[in-house]
Design brief:
The chain has five helices and three strands. By secondary structure, the protein is of the alpha+beta class. β2 and β3 form a beta hairpin. The chain is elongated.
Length: 118
């Protein structure tokens, strides 16, 4: 990836990473590198998750009871922790998705300058 491409990436807002991780895990268990790759691919390379942020977020989500983890073997035959969305995590994701949709809609209203009221 070139330097010019890196300038177009978007920094994640506080709390955003948690929702992204939970959303990826709705499709089934995944290890940390797989979660980071899925976020990057599904955001069309706009979001790049730093491992220094990913693993503390995974620990935080596990401590909250929103994900569970167990050891397994990855596709490249390496030992890895696989994370799974818990029923409580699914409920939390539903609530957070609603909040993020409201926020995105409000941001769209403000950013649509043709409709902006002085």
């Amino acid at each position: 990836m070139s330097i010019s491409d890196e300038r177009h990436r978007v920094a994640l807002l506080q709390g955003t990473l948690d929702v992204l991780i939970l959303r990826i895990l709705i499709f089934g268990p995944q290890h940390g590198q797989g979660i980071a790759r899925a976020i990057q691919l599904n955001s069309e390379d706009v979001l790049l998750v730093d491992h220094g942020a990913l693993y503390p977020a995974l620990q935080r989500l596990e401590a909250q009871g929103w994900i569970s983890a167990e050891w397994g073997v990855s596709t490249n035959n390496r030992k890895a922790r696989f994370y799974t969305l818990t029923p409580e995590g699914r409920k939390h994701l539903t609530r957070e998705t609603s909040r993020w949709r409201k926020l995105a809609a409000a941001m769209a209203l403000i950013l649509d300058l043709e409709k902006l009221k002085p």
